[in-house]
Design a protein that fits this description.
With about 150 residues, the chain is mainly α. The chain has one domain. Helix content is about 75%, strand content about 0%. The relative contact order is 0.16.
Length: about 150
């Protein structure tokens, strides 16, 4: 792979990771981290105005059933994914779970504003590109820690 292209992919990986860290920090410092705040947010996002009722009606009830468990997980999970992408640890898992979170946020709350809609779609596509290209193998902690031993 072209070396300058590889550096762009690494830059994108770190930027997406930093965005996840920022979003996780925002969630940790907001009422959404409490079961009540989480339930209120999910109720709003799965309301009648959601343009993806098939998704809201299938996922919403599950999310509302376990707010004590899912509220902190939604914040800390985003932080862990962000850290994994920034330092390059457990890259495949971080990319796949990150894409799932972006898809969930896209269908649940993307309709609430254009920036949120676009950001989730863009982050999903960048992560998909990183995963499919295999460039995530370059300059990561994974490549250092799990290097095959010669011999």
């Amino acid at each position: 792979m072209n070396r300058s292209l590889m550096w762009w992919f690494i830059f994108l990986r770190v930027v997406v990771g930093a965005i996840f860290l920022y979003i996780g920090w925002q969630r940790l410092n907001s009422p959404i981290v409490t079961p009540e705040g989480f339930s209120e947010s999910v109720s709003h996002d799965t309301g009648a105005d959601n343009p993806f009722p098939w998704y809201a009606e299938s996922v919403g009830p599950f999310l509302l059933k376990y707010p004590e468990f899912l509220a902190p997980i939604s914040a800390w999970g985003v932080m862990v994914i962000g850290a994994g992408l920034v330092v390059g640890l457990f890259m495949v898992a971080a990319l796949i779970v990150g894409m799932l979170i972006n898809l969930n946020d896209f269908f649940m709350a993307g309709w609430t504003n254009a920036a949120y809609y676009g950001l989730n779609a863009l982050m999903f596509l960048i992560q998909l590109g990183l995963l499919v290209s295999g460039v995530w193998r370059s300059l990561t902690l994974d490549s250092i820690l799990w290097k095959k031993r010669k011999g």
